[in-house]
Design brief:
Length: about 250
């Protein structure tokens, strides 16, 4: 079966204003709306479009995280995914551990293609797709802004500093998606109701044979410095004077 595996992550909704805890130990999530990582949502949308074109038969969505992640998995099922896999885990899960868990799911599911977002908007690491490809020993194409499948190859257009770069990779492969690849669809109420009946399987690290290791230590969180809303009169006058000396004004 031509199957696509999509990895998603539960993050604070992109429209929510982030607040750092007073003790600097992390970001406050009490009562905060959570959502699918926006880049992962784009990855899922692309997988669904590939299936709708007849190039895949099944879309499986997977995540690693606490029990609350099942809410985002149900949203993914409502978007159109056929099945969901939940690797249960609490606390901070590093990209290497996530990649190892996804590799075990790949060995079970044998997908033709694995698609993930290029990065998560919470930790901004941008590592999971690349690490997964290395562990799987399969080709990778990152930051995809266009994806075309043809037989046993994938043609990927990616944005680089000099413009656009187009590469071809043999399948199976790992693709990570950029912002301009597509516009994710809205979830409708009937689809939400149907999603409740779709299969969602939960497994543990132990069942997969993965040992979670914490190799990074989060020392402290600090909010970014506040921007000044305007330029002081003195600074503006000095700027005008400097431009006049250079002959700009």
């Amino acid at each position: 079966m031509k199957r696509i595996l999509v990895g998603i992550k539960r993050v604070v909704d992109a429209n929510v204003r982030i607040r750092v805890k007073p003790d600097g130990s992390g970001v406050s999530t009490d009562g905060v709306k959570m959502a699918i990582n926006p880049f992962d949502e784009i990855a899922l949308e692309e997988a669904l479009r590939i299936k709708e074109r007849g190039a895949a038969e099944e879309v499986v969505v997977a995540t690693v995280g606490p029990a609350d992640c099942q809410q985002q998995l149900r949203t993914a099922l409502a978007m159109g995914a056929d099945r969901a896999l939940h690797v249960q885990a609490d606390g901070v899960i590093e990209p290497l551990t996530v990649a190892r868990a996804l590799l075990k799911l790949i060995e079970r599911e044998q997908p033709l293609l694995v698609i993930l977002g290029k990065q998560a908007i919470d930790d901004d690491n941008g590592q999971t797709g690349q690490v997964l490809a290395a562990l799987w020993n399969r080709p990778q194409a990152t930051y995809a802004s266009k994806l075309e499948l043809s037989g046993e190859t994938a043609r990927v257009t990616r944005e680089v500093d000099a413009g656009l770069e187009t590469i071809e990779v043999d399948l199976p492969a790992v693709i990570t998606t950029d912002l301009r690849l597509n516009e994710p669809r809205y979830v409708k109420l009937p689809d939400i109701m149907k999603a409740k009946k779709k299969p969602l399987d939960a497994v543990t690290f132990a069942a997969l044979g993965v040992e979670p290791r914490q190799q990074l230590k989060l020392v402290r969180f600090e909010p970014p410095p506040q921007r000044q809303k305007g330029m002081r009169v003195k600074d503006a006058a000095e700027l005008v004077d400097a431009l006049r000396k250079k002959g700009v004004l």
